Each structure stands twice: as C-alpha cells, then as structure tokens.
Amino acid sequence: MNYGTDVVTHTKPKSRQNKVSCNVDDLTSRAIGDFGRWQCRISALMALLKLPIAWYQLNIIFLAPPQEFWCIKPIMFDKYSDEEWRQMSVPRIEEFPCLIFDPNMLIRTHKINKYKIPLVECTNFTYDQALFTRTITSEWNLVCSKHWLVHLSQCVMMWGVLLGGIIFGILADNYGRKVPLIVAIILQSEASYISSMIPWYWGWLFVWLILALASGGIGIISFVICMEAVSGKWRTIVPIIYQLPFGLGSSVMAGIAYFFRDWRQLEFILASISAIYILYWIWVPESPRWLLATGQIDKALEVLRVAAIQNKRENNLKDIENLLSKCKGQKSKNPGFIDFFKSKNMRKKTLLLSLSWFCTGLAFYTFSQYLGLIGANIFLTVAWSGIISTPGAILCIFIVMKTGRKMTVWIFQLMTAMCFVFILFTPKDIFVKDWPRLLFAGVGFAGLAGTVPALYLFSGELFPTLGRNAGVGGVTMFARIAAMIAPAVVSLDEILPDLPLILLVITSFIQMLFIVPLPETKNCPLPDTLEEAE
Question: pTM for the whole thing?
Fold first, then answer.
C-alpha cells in the first residue's frame, strides 16, 4: 500500500512499466482511476470517523477539567460561612485542601495559634459547580491521593488505542477491512453508552479500555481503507485531508460540552452520535485492494464494477479481468516492523522517525489537555484550537507540494514551538478573555495539525510498499506511548507553573533535529521492497 506520492507512475524504470503488472495498485488504478466519485465518497466516510476518534481521545478535557474543591464543612462549624471555614481550616502552605487543621481541636482552640494544631487528611470534599455540575473528579473524589487515577484513565485510553490498532490491524489483514471496522464502531458506541451509566470507577475504567480498543481499531482501519481507495497524486492529498475532522471533532465536542455540563450527559450524547456510524455496514464496501491481494478475484470485481460505474470507467474492466487471470497465485511477503531494524539504513530512518513521532505525540496530547489551563474559558479555548487546526492542515497540502516533506515538518514544528514560547511570556488574566494566549494556542494547535499529516506522509514514503503498514504503524506507536505520559507532564504545572509548556518548547526543537538526517522524499520513486529502501 502506497501512502502518498504524485510521481509514482512517472519515476518507475521503463523496464518495469512495460512489463505486465500484477501489482494491486496498478490493477485498481487502471480499473477505476486514481480519484473519482467513488474514491471521494469512501475518503469522506473514512475522514468522518475522525470525529468520534477525537471525542474519545480528547474528552478527558471535559471529563476531568480543572475544578476547584475544598473540604466539606463539619456541622460544628455551621455558624461560619463556607469561605470563613476554608480560610480557617486550610494551611497556607497547602495549594489544595488535602490536609486541614484538625477540626476537633480547631473548634476548641481557635483563639490560640492554629499552626500548632496538627494536620489531618480530609476525606470528604465539595466541588465548585459553577462551570461543571458533575465530573469524574467530583463523582469519585479523584483528588489528593486519588488524583493519579485521572492520569490512569488517560493512560488506559492511550494503551487501549495502541493495542486496538495492533489487534484490529491484524484482524483487518486477515479478515478484511469492513467487518473489523463495523465491529469496532459497534464496540465504540456501546462502550460509550455503558460508560455513561456505570456507577463504579474501576468498572468504568474497564469499559473505557474497551472503548479505547475500538477507537484505536477504527483509526487504523479507516486510514488503511482511505489510502487503499486512492492512487497517484491523491496519495499526497488525501492523507492530509483525512486528518481534518480530528480538529473539528474537538470543536464539536466543546460545543456539546458547553450545553451539557454533566460528564454523563456528555458521554451519552457522544455515544448516540457514534451509533449513527453503524450505517457504514451499508455504505462502505470491502477494500478491493485487500480482496485482490488475498485472491478473492470475484468479490473484488464486484466492488470494482460498482466503483467503475460511479467513476464512468466501465470500459476498463474487461482488460483488468484478463490481467487478473494471469496474476492468480502470486504472493509477496511483507516485512514486519522488527525487520526494519536489521538493516543499517532503514534502522536509522526507523529510529529517527520513532523519536520524532514520540515528540509529536507528547506535544499534541500534552497541549490538548493543557488547553484548559491556557485561557479563562475552557470551551472557547478548545473550540478555537480545533477550528484553527483546519486551515493548518489545509495549508500543509500547499507547503508539502511546494517545499517537500522535511521542510514542511520543520516549518510547522517551528511555528508550534514559537507559539509555546509566546504563551510562556504572555501573562494570564491580563487581557480580555486572555485573547493573546488564546490566539497563540490556536496557532500552535494549527502547527501541530499540520505536523501530524506531513509526518504521516513522510513516514509512509520512507518505508517500502511491502511493509509500509508495519513501518508506519510501528513508528506511530511511539506517539501513543507519549500520549500515556502526557497527563503526568500536564500535572507538572502543580510543581512549577508553565513547566509543561517549557518541556513542550524543548521537545519541539529537539524533534526538528531528528528530522535533519532523514532524506527528502519529494519527487523520488517509492521503494517497493526492503532492499530498495535500504
């Protein structure tokens, strides 16, 4: 499977072009063309799946947002107001009221120096409901010694996405793209429904893992179907456009969260919308490339016939049927991800790409969760960042066609790093609605939105056709690993304000160094085998 180049059909040696081709890409592109109505419909349907992927991978922003809390006032302090109780009970050295002065002694000895009173752990809390009526933090008291459970939930999500990509990727290679995709869609919707109702944290976390597995499966399969539907120069454009709904998904989620401030209501609404995707069983056909690659010629011809009619290329099918009869029984072995570490050149490329994806994942997911701390209005900040990511991804198309893959990644990473720097030096709560910080956050998110598709394309062109799935899937796995670390990085803000942003600035500049040794792939022929790539 080719991940994108607009020069494949022009740069292959003539000896290979004149030869009868049994290549799946050649057969399908000759039958239905590089891009037409059929490919447009399939690409749009797959891109729309990025909406729920964004909802579930980023909705920790609204499930566990920053929320002020304090220790519940004992009955013996009823004559004091809540604010007086808070001032009285919490030592100034405590940023959060996890430890309070012993109430039994405080009520009796309030005239003496209260700092002589021992501190005790608070076990019951009340939460500020001015912005959110109910969160997973307030419902299960995930504060103080239990605060790590919030980070655990996001780690479980990313582990699930990682494992889901592997599990459903294997299923899709063995049993086709369509059935595993529909199974993942059903699992995602049902798990979301259950998670909105289950009353226990650990039970919810288990369901959350199932939802994450499904989300990871949908992500990998939809990308593969999208890429297998197009050919030629559209393998440069489609992978970038495919990413657009992810940013829009976060904006849609912010809008829904604005009207539904209870996390259970939010989850139920997202589940209801996700259930609509079950109709993909009717709308999405099996990938003809997979059918051809597995020798299911008759089924492949049925799909190609429908596609050819929609693309008005019915006359091409007769020639393809004759070619298919000569290609039966021909198989090629795809190298696994580990095989790329066994050769010197590909080992260097794979290692540098893995490190670059780690930095990208760390920046993207850390910044996504950090958005709630950047501006005064969390809904506006998340929505604005999602909206502005769209022109960032569109701009990526023009830059990548003009300057190449390496320079595109460099440009967007530099833009992102500089926005992080500007946010660091712009004070909070000085300007109306923190508009400068909001502006820089949006532009920074647009930079990340441009980096991700450019890096996807760059990675796909560095790996050979045979093994491209394994290669790209392997290096992007490091972005998921980084996403598991993201909650811990965000929590560093409690140690030193803006420390997460400082780390993001450093990693963004470091990633630019990882890109330098990699070769440019623009206007270069794609390698078909590991030997050619080496």
Answer: 0.78
